[in-house]
Amino acid sequence: MGLFVDIKKRLNGFSLDVQWRMDNEIAVVFGHSGAGKSLTLKAIAGLMRPDEGAIVARGRTLFERNGRLRVDLPPQKRHMGYVFQDLALFPHMTVRENIAFGLKAKHGRQSGETERMLKLFHIEGLAGRYPREISGGQKQRVALARALIGRPGVLLLDEPFSALDRGLRDEMGRLLVDVRREFGIPVVLVTHDAGEARAVADRLIVYSGGRVVQTGSPEEVTGRPTSDEVAALLGQVIPQKTGSASV
Amino acid sequence: MGASSSVLFSMRLSLQVALVVTVFMLLAGVPLAYVLARKDFWGKGLLDVLLTLPLVLPPTVTGYYLIIIFGRNGLAGRPLYALTGWSVTFTWYAAALASFIVAMPLMIRTSRAAMESVDQSLVDASYTLGHGELRTAFRVILPLAGKGIMAGLVLSFARAIGEFGATLMFAGDIPGKTETMPLAIYSYLESGDWSHVHGMVIILTLLSGTVIYLANRMSRRII
Q: Considering chain B, what is the average pLDDT of its residues?
């Protein structure tokens, strides 16, 4: 069982109303900025409370509200690995401290686990450095390692690769596929980059204006877009409109 | 009491008051600034106004309110006196309390601004990593706001050293008991003892200047 999301939220004139589910796979939430993608991730992680709906991760209800609030776990109880758009590495902690902060302090195996993650993400040499002293791609690895060290139930990524150049972005995409294989958890990646979406997705969830306009495998969505809008979002040539006015 | 021993007493008392104020500012000012920076609650606006008022009110007015509240016949002072036979007025505790209230706005404004400038995504990151509010405050927010908190403490210390009006109203000018340096300067001036005035003015100016220099070095954003 993966993740079930059903969210209704009104916020400053914007209305988010989405429902989708995914299995133990990589789902890419794709759409223009302002479509409600990041808001969805925040709701899953417990950083934003929906007005209505339910969020269930691997059989565990994280949020439920139909008329009255039944369940609303705080973010620290949801076991979500979250990689923020700006990565949110703690500037006053070294790489090693940043990663170790993903474990509870009482953990006896803390240092061993941290070393394991440093090795897994090929950042052993950077352990003593501060975030301002390492490159963008290295920061991505640190953020991923920190998000995963606590063995989260789901990994959520909010456009973490958008600031990288194309080559590095492809490399991070491959890393993400490896990571999913290694940790065996559902991964939700938010992006507005069609190439990135197609490259890593097992399932594409296309957003527009706070609604889901199409879901399916990348082949299904790109092969049979349900509307011109979806086709345009994916950067495909829009076929000539067949309306009453044209031939 | 000889003039030089009275000068020494005033210097020691001023330092003692300023140190006590600084310690209590750390214990009470930091949590207050945190609550104002990160919580929404009923009456927050009012609390903010109350804590800022001593910055703009004449210290004599602040002193007046302290008497109304903590004086022997005050709202809190009367039951305290009835219970213990002790009153805070005309003791050095009164001088410390007056300085504490007057310095509070400097502490709150400086450290609150520093706490508010901590990136929300860092706080969210700590939560998603499984840490509750207390650990997030101690490991993320307070360390990142550390410079602002230190600057607030230094400013509080300096303000306490220089406090005059509220202290005079609430603690009185009792040589050898509540006479801090600013009060002593005023006493010497009234009695025409200019040599002592000169000496103490120079000491106070140098001390305050050093403290402001330190605060500036610790934080570029003061008030």
A: 91
